[in-house]
């Protein structure tokens, strides 16, 4: 079975303020499934494509002051950064196609959920 790399927003009952960062990651990774609506799962080829052949991670890193890439995890906690990334991905969505477009649309959906629920977005690569 191929390893999956999740991007997720914790469920509403997960209190991120009372948990250490690693506890939130452990809880979410241990409780995610393919039917989870607050997550999307990438395969290694997707992560490589985003790292080397796409602007998606560049946008996230520029807005989040991060280093998200293959073998590097990150999260977005600022509402302002979530809004900025969302706006830029909505613009990018017009110019991408295929699997990249599917991933962008999935991240957009998760950002909208995170903004609405005031939760973080976690990228586990």
SSE order and pairing:
Layout: E1 5-8, H1 21-31, E2 39-42, H2 44-52, H3 56-64, E3 74-76, H4 79-92, H5 98-117, E4 121-123
Antiparallel strand pairs: 1-2, 1-4, 3-4
Helix pairs in contact: 3-4, 4-5
Q: Over the alpha carbons, how many angstroms does the gyration radius reach?
A: 14 Å
- Percent of residues in helices: 40-55%
Which of globular, elongated, flat, extended, rod-shaped describes the shape?
globular
Number of helices: 5
> What would you say the CATH architecture is?
3-Layer(aba) Sandwich
How many strands, which pairing sense, and closed or not: the largest β-sheet?
Answer: 4 strands, antiparallel
Query: What do we call the CATH topology?
Result: Hypothetical protein yfbM fold
Mean pLDDT: 91
Count the E strands: 4
Strand percentage lies at 5-15%
What is the first-to-last residue Cα distance?
Answer: 17 Å
**Helix and strand succession?**
EHEHHEHHE
Structurally, how many domains make up the residues?
1
Strand order of the largest sheet: 2-1-4-3
Q: Give the uncertain stretches in residue-range form.
A: none
Task: Describe the 3D structure.
This protein has helices at 21-31, 44-52, 56-64, 79-92, 98-117; strands at 5-8, 39-42, 74-76, 121-123. The protein has a single domain (5-123), classed as Hypothetical protein yfbM fold. The protein has a 4-stranded antiparallel beta sheet, sandwiched between helices. By secondary structure, the chain is of the alpha+beta class. Helix 3 (56-64) runs antiparallel to helix 4 (79-92) and helix 4 packs antiparallel against helix 5. The chain has 5 helices and 4 strands, in the order βαβααβααβ. The protein is globular and about 40 Å long. InterPro entries: DMP12_sf.
